[in-house]
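Sample 1 of the test manifest.
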Amino acid sequence: MNVLIPGPLRSYTGERREVEANGATLAEVLADLDRRYPGIRFRMIDEQDGIRRHMRIYVNGGEVRAIHVPLRSSDEVIIFQALSGG
Amino acid sequence: MPAKPPANAVTSAAPNAATGRVALLVATRKGAFILNTDGSRRTWTIRGPMFFGHIVHHMVLDPRPFARTLMVAARTGHLGPSVFRSTNMGKTWQEATRPPAFPKVEQAQDGQKGRVVDHTFWLSPGHASEPRTWYAGTSPQGLFRSEDGGDTWAPVSGFNDHPMYLKWTGGDKDGTPNGPKLHSIQVDPRDARHLYIGMSSGGVFESLDKGASWKPLNAGCAADFRPEPNPEYGHDPHCVRLHPLAADVLYQQNHCGIYRMQRADATWVRIGANMPKRIGDIGFPLVLHPRDTRTLWVFPMDGTSVWPRTSPGGKPAAYVTRNAGKSWQRQDAGLPRNQGWFTVKRQAMSADAHHPVGVYFGTTGGEVWASRNEGAKWACIAQHLPEIYALEAVEPAR
C-alpha cells in the first residue's frame, strides 16, 4: 500500500514522499517500512509501540491512535508531523 | 558500608601537553557545529551546522587510539531520539541500528507504563581496554551500553531495572526543567568495571561490577530541597568529574554547592564553601585540568531566590582553584563587565590539553568564549549560534 512520508523523515526514504510498504496491520506496515528504510520506525514510534507525541498517522483520512489496527492492501497511510513549538 | 576502590588499581602516567590542532564540538538546540583552530589557538573557523534543526544534546570524540569516532546524541521536536557516529570528523554519519531504548513492556504492571527514552543526554567512551564500548545516559534516567562502537545499544539492566530505581530517581517532576537526566558517566581509568554516574535528580552512584549492581555515594552532600536532613539519595549533582590521573578523587558541581571526595573517605566535602559569599557556589559545569589534579574551573550561576541561573549580578566570571578547592580566584578579564547574563549548561564548558591549558565555554545565548591561558583572559570566538547545550574541546589529530 501507499505510505506518505513527511518531510522530516524523507532522509530515510531517499527524499521520496510516497513509498510502498506491506502488512495486515499498521504495526506490520511500519515494520516493513523499517526493513526498507532502517531506523525510520523508531523516529516516529517509541519503544512501547506508542506513536510519538508530535507524530500523527492517518489511514484513509482518519487518524489512528495505536499501531495495532488492521489494514487492507488498498488503504492509504499518511504520516504527518504535528506542531511542536519553536 | 561504602564500596571499596578496586583492588587492581594502578596509577596512570601524566600525559604530555598537546601541541596540535584543537576542535570544539558544539552541540546546540538547532544543530551541531565544529570550531577549529591550529596549535596556536589564535584564530578559529566554524563548520556547520550539522544535523541542522536537530536538538543535539552531546557530541563527543572518542579519545582512544585507533577509534576516532565522533558520536552525536540527537532528536528533533517531532522525531524520536537517536545516536549517530562518524569516522571522518562529521563528513558522513551512520545512525545507530538500535539506539538507546528501554525494553518493551508487554503488559503494564502495578499501573506502571513502560518507560520511553525522551532523549539521550550524555555520551561517554568506555575504558581504554574496551575500544568499542560506549555508555549513554538518558532522560528519563537510564543507562545504556554499546559494545560495537555505537551501532547497537542495550540497557544496563543492573541500574535500569534495579528494585530501588523508582526511589533513587524519583518521579517525572524530580528533575531538571527539561526532564530528569542520567549524566556524568565516569569510567575508572584503572578498571573497566568501576563506574560512576550522576543523576538529576537521584545523586551520585557507583558500580564495581560494570553496572550489575549500584550503591549511592552521596554522604556529606547537601540536598536542601528535600525534607530529610541527610538523605542517602535524591541529590542533584549537576556535573561529576573523575580525574584520569587521580582516580580516587571525585569532584562535583551540585545543585547545593561544589564538592570533592577522596574516595576512601566516602564523604563529600563542600569545597565551594571557600568561594566568595556574594558569588556562592552554585553552577552547572565543572572542568578539570588535564595534568594538574588540584586545578579545576567552575562557572558560577545565581542560585538565589527563584534560581535565575545566570551569572551573579550580570557579571560573568569563571572561578579557578589550584589547590583542590582551598581557595578560588575570579577570572573575568575579557568578559562583559556588566549586563552579561550568561547561562552555561553542565556540558558546555571544557578544557584542551595544551600548555597553558585552553578553557572554553558556550552560553545559552549562542556565544563561545575561549581562553588560551587557563582562564587569565577570555575572548569571544563565536556569536549568534543557537542555544548551546554542550561543548567539548578535543584534539582531532592526537
